[in-house]
Amino acid sequence: MSDEVLGPGPRTRVRRLPQKASYDADLIHAILDEAHLCHVAAIVNGRAVTLPTLHAREGRAIYLHGSQSNALLRAVVESGEACLTVTLYDGLRLARSGFESSIAYRSVVAYGAATIVEDDEEKRRVLDLFVDAILPGRAIEVRPMTDQELRLTLVVRLSIDEASAKVSSGPTEDVAGDLDLPIWSGTVPARLWFDAPVPARDGAMAEGDVDLPASVQRLLGGQR
User: Fold this and answer.
1) Which residues of 169-184 are buried (b: 16+ CB within 10 A; e: fewer)?
2) Is this model's pTM higher than 0.90 or not?
3) Phi, psi of 219 (to 5 degrees)
4) What would the pLDDT profile of 76-132 be if each residue is shown by its tens digit?
5) Domain locations in the chain as residue ranges
6) By the 8 A CB rule, do 216 and 198 touch?
7) What is the CATH number of domain 18-193?
8) Which of 111, 158, 164, 222 sits between 20 and 30 A of 175, alpha carbons compared?
9) Could you give the CA distance from residue 18 to residue 173 in angstroms, rounded to a whole number?
């Protein structure tokens, strides 16, 4: 844990089960980095909208990207602020009653100022960061982004001004009166698993003589 904290603040203070809360920057950053996607909320044309999207973190900034016409991202920028959440599903916490049963999870809620990344070189760097956030090392294996692709892409920077984590883990919390019941209680861990790669069969891949890239090899090796 670090000495840096990102809360509690007026929008991120955890009031329900506060013992599960943390405002430690290192923990919050680790959960954001491990999450494969996030959810972003905004008011779009007078209506509340929440959508899943990819994200990449660097320091105290979270980057989002989409098409130039992305209504949610445009609304976030116009309002000047965004609310972003991520959740990691870690398994089941099975108590002797349905009321005390729950899931194991790690989640983050973050608020911050939202601005458009305008500089083309910065956009290129951040979009490579996105690629590596999804699969580390992949950015150097693919062709560079074209100028047209760059023009079509909107990149938004969200500063992490205030954030909180909530972690539910460990043994279940059965009430004392249930402990002697002959009902199985415990945890069932879960994790994301990548299966065997399925290669494309068109273009240069048609003959099947293109080697599996190092990024994918490291991904699969890390599961062992």
Assistant:
1) eeebebeeeeeeeeee
2) yes
3) -60, -50
4) 999 999 999 999 999 999 999 999 999 999 999 999 999 999 999 999 999 999 999
5) 18-193
6) no
7) 2.30.110.10
8) 164
9) 16
